[in-house]
Amino acid sequence: MRYNIYVVDDDSFMATINSAEDAVKEASRCSHCNEPNCIGGCPLGVPIPAILSLVATGKFLEAALILRERIPLASVTGRLCPSYRFCEKNCSLGRKERPISFCSIERFLGDLSLNSLIKQRGNSRGSVLVVGGGPAGITTAHDLFVEGYNVDVWERRPSIGGWLRKVPPFRLPTEILNWEIERLVLSGMVFEINKEMGNMDPILASNHYEKIALTIGEPPCRPSQKPGVEETLEAALKGIAPNCRSVVINEGTDGAIDLARQLRQLKPDLGITINAEIVGNEEDAKLAESEGISIRKPSKLLMKLGALTIGGDCPRLPPPFQLQTSIEGLLMVNEHLTTSKDHVYAAGGAVGFYKSITEAMASGHDLAQCLMFRSRSSANDFAPQL
Asked: What pTM was estimated for this model as a whole?
């Protein structure tokens, strides 16, 4: 298996990890500076120098287990994390040469440890219901499970993963995601699919769960005649391409780039333009351009005869709960991530528009910490962050 190492300022790959020897060689480049800015640059707080030291000495499994304490989906983040914006941007080596490609080492360690199971540090510390099985929800549930909480994860869709299920297989192979979820299940974590949250008051009144954590993802767009990126991508992943000569995608997110590249594979002669500033993975945007996809700065004048316009700003549907929301339809929370209802917390896309899996998982870590340190008897004192 090949693990590509990206270089931000170069359109080509400068190196690849094809073996354990390559991983050792890349990890050995770490200068172990006195102030490792890479840790501060990582939203997940991964102890990168310590992991690189272990990899450099061939202690791969030990390194992988430390990595997975902070990243329960290491094989996934190793493929999707825009590390050039985080640890690699802050790597001291990057001032004079190529920064260390920790993302590739992360992928190597993640794939190597897909059979490793999670060990709990305690038991019977309380019961929490996590609603939403995307990156933030999985991370929240993982952290609570490790500390001995009884955690159930409800997912309204027929599979766990949230928006990760909408990432095309050329970026995230389905079997890798399935394997990561299976690892969590085999460790003892409980996931229930096709499980929709209705009225939460009876759930709280039953005392079966002490707290509810809402990680339900970004609020969906209101129904519109203009197709959205998400629905068009879902169709494209099923092999359905728009019946037109060209499309204009008015978003520059990861999903928009994925859509453009998936449409290129489905319909090679389709004209595809991304009419937006790129806020997603810049490396994937470069790959899209190399595949003949046009990327332009946003312009309202960009119109093409017969072009289908996809995406753009949309009014959002508020979540189906009696909770205080912002004008964008996001759940409002205070500094403890509590919502306007006692014992109900929220994080991830439900409270903010995150640009990467890394930031969504970091939100899940924060939520788990808040849940662990806020007892049921604590007053809610809800005062939302504006």
From this structure: 0.90
